Predict the structure.
Amino acid sequence: MARILVAEDERDIRELIGFTLRHHGHTVLTAPNGEEALALALRELPDLVLLDIRMPRLTGYDVCRRLRAEASTRDIPIAFLSAKGQEAEIQAGMDAGATDYILKPFAPDQLINRVALLLGEPGTHR
């Protein structure tokens, strides 16, 4: 299965997402802030990056822009995970280079389905 980077400053949320993804066979890399997420993504080149927007050190927007600017990471799918669902926030995420924008809270099966879509796994539907 895929190697997925989860960047989320809230430990409980980060652990829950990690548990859900591991339960479905994925390898999970985690980062508690944007700076660590960026370094980990550049070093490990995951198959997918899930980013919280509001994180210490670097925002999710900053991480996304920097990953898109690097040749080695520009094609990795990136999804924002955010409770901010206003159109302006979603548009800002997409403008930063996101592939998708997933609203919190979400059910584990919703997350798994979106991850499968982002990874291009067959038999998945929105």
About this structure: The CA atoms of residues 35 and 58 lie 6 Å apart. The longest helix spans residues 11-23. Helices lie at 11-23, 34-44, 60-69, 87-95, 108-119.
